[in-house]
Amino acid sequence: MQRQSYEDALRANEEQLRQALEYQHVLTQEVSHRVKNSLAIVAGLLRVQSNSSPSADLRQALDDAETRVLTNAQLHDRLWQTGEVRSLNLEDFLRELCEKFSSSASTKILTYEAPPVMIPTDDAIPLGLLVNELVTNAVKYASPQKPGDVSISIKPNGDRLRLEVRDRGPGLPEGWQQTKPASLGMKLISRLSRQLGGEPQWENALSGSRFTLEFSA
């Protein structure tokens, strides 16, 4: 009799735990859905404002802001859709991110590589936003035309990872100072780099420019 009571209580506890996990999953999905919708609304408002602006510079700034908001929404949705709550595969993450870039471009200009290591999801969104800013800058200023004109690589370097983004454009402008980024994009790159625990480095390469960042794996 006691054994039967114990087994009944155990089954009841297991059922309560299952229901709690299901509720948590539904709640998480609902929160994620609302966050995604909220970001989409913000992006839509930016698009409306851009379309009604008489200033070309303001339209460009609003379009850039819209792209950043949509990128954030896509990254957030990707993490929750796959159920990767604590960590994710860096190789898969970078591949999917670059495939999105390639699908929105008229030509395939990107090459990329990354190791199949796991990184915390807390680092995934700033890393994704950072890569988005770097690729956007390369497309805007380097005028890439063919595969390899923009390359992204992430490689192990001791107990850290080294991100490198290169382009084959005209290089950094004369008099450019890394310590005094003028554009919002450059300021975001610096801030996102430091959020990942690294210090961004820009330099002219043999052809074009190169950005590097070492951050914790």
From TrEMBL:
The keyword Phosphoprotein applies. Residues 30-217 form the Histidine kinase domain. It is an enzyme of class 2 (transferase). It catalyses: ATP + protein L-histidine = ADP + protein N-phospho-L-histidine. InterPro entries: HATPase_C_sf (IPR036890), HATPase_dom (IPR003594), His_kinase_dom (IPR005467), Sig_transdc_His_kin_sub2_dim/P (IPR011495). It comes from the Bacteria. Its EC number is 2.7.13.3. Signal peptide: none annotated. Coiled coil: none annotated. Keywords: ATP-binding, Kinase, Nucleotide-binding, Phosphoprotein, Transferase. One of its GO terms (molecular function) is ATP binding. PANTHER family: ETHYLENE RESPONSE SENSOR PROTEIN, TWO-COMPONENT SYSTEM SENSOR PROTEIN. This is histidine kinase. It comes from Pseudomonas syringae pv. spinaceae.
